[in-house]
Design brief:
By secondary structure, this protein is α/β, with parallel strands linked by helices. It has eight helices and twelve strands.
Length: 256
C-alpha cells in the first residue's frame, strides 16, 4: 500500500506543525494549501500550493483528481468560507475530513470583554468619543475602521494594509507573532491604548495582548467565532495525529 494522500488547508502555525509531524511518520503524503493572503509565508516542511480552488465544486474536483484520501482543515478559526467549502466538498466525493481548531480564549477574572459578532459591530461599540484603539485583527478587515475616523488606531499586521487606510490618525506596525506579555504591555502603554479590538482566535501565539490588556485594565472588544463547519473536530495536534492513525490503522483497513 502506498502513502496515504492528505490535502491540508493551512495558514496557521498548527498546520505547519501538523504537516511536519505527519511527514515524520513516513506514512503520509501531504500537500499543504495556503490561501495566499500573506506575501511572505513561513517555510513549510511539505509541498505547498497557493491560491483558491473555485468554491465547493473546484475543491471537490481537486480532491478527486489528486486521489486524496483525507482532507484536513487547519485554517484560521475565522476562515469560515473555506471551512464550509471543505466540509461540503469532502462529503460530495465521499472522503473523510477533520478540522483542527484551537480552543477559544475564555475570559478570566480582571478581563473587561465586550462580545460582538462582527468587526463592524466592534467599531460601532467604540462609541462616538475619540479613543485610542489597538486594532489587532489583521489587514483584511482593517478598512472597516474608516467609518469611525475620530479614533486613533494602532494597526498591527504581518503585511502592509492595501490600499492604505484613509484615517487621519493611524500608526501601522508590521510584525508576526508569537508575542510576549511584557512587550505587549509596553506597546499598549507607549501608545496610551484604552481599547483593544480583536477576534477570538484562541491559541498561545497572540494571547499575550489579552493578558496585557487584563493587567492594564483595558477594554477588549472581542469578535466571537461563527459556528464551526460540520466535520469531526479536534483541538490539538496530538489528537489529530491519533484520529488519523485510527482512521488509517491496519486493523481498520482489514475491517476488524
Amino acid at each position: 500500500m502506498g502513502k496515504i494522500r492528505i490535502l491540508m488547508l493551512g495558514g496557521t502555525g498548527e498546520a505547519r506543525s501538523l504537516a511536519q509531524s505527519l511527514t515524520n511518520t513516513g506514512r503520509y503524503d501531504v500537500l499543504l494549501s495556503l490561501a495566499g493572503r500573506t506575501e511572505k509565508p513561513c517555510d513549510q516542511p511539505v509541498p505547498v500550493r497557493i491560491g483558491g480552488f473555485g468554491g465547493v465544486d473546484g475543491l471537490a474536483a481537486f480532491l478527486r483528481n489528486g486521489s486524496f484520501d483525507l482532507l484536513i482543515d487547519a485554517t484560521h478559526p475565522f476562515a469560515a468560507r473555506i471551512s464550509r467549502n471543505a466540509s461540503e466538498a469532502s462529503a460530495a466525493i465521499g472522503i473523510p475530513a477533520f478540522a483542527l481548531r484551537r480552543p477559544e480564549w475564555v475570559a478570566e477574572p480582571g478581563d473587561r470583554w465586550t462580545h460582538v459578532a462582527t468587526i463592524t459591530e466592534a467599531i460601532e461599540r467604540l462609541g462616538p468619543s475619540p479613543r485610542r484603539v489597538f486594532l489587532a485583527i489583521g489587514r483584511q478587515e482593517a478598512h472597516r475602521a474608516e467609518v469611525a475616523p475620530q479614533h486613533f488606531y494602532l494597526v498591527r499586521s504581518v503585511d502592509p494594509v492595501e490600499p492604505p487606510l484613509v484615517l487621519p490618525d493611524v500608526q501601522l506596525v508590521l510584525d508576526r507573532g508569537p508575542y510576549d506579555v511584557e512587550s505587549e504591555i509596553s506597546l499598549l502603554r507607549s501608545h496610551r491604548i484604552d481599547a483593544l479590538v480583536t477576534k477570538n482566535s484562541g491559541g498561545s501565539a497572540t494571547y499575550a495582548k489579552i493578558e496585557a490588556a487584563r493587567r492594564l485594565g483595558i477594554e477588549v472588544i472581542m469578535v466571537v467565532r461563527v459556528p464551526a463547519a460540520a466535520m469531526q473536530t479536534v483541538t490539538t495536534i496530538e489528537a489529530m495525529l491519533a484520529a488519523i492513525d485510527h482512521l488509517f490503522s491496519p486493523a481498520m483497513n482489514r475491517g476488524v
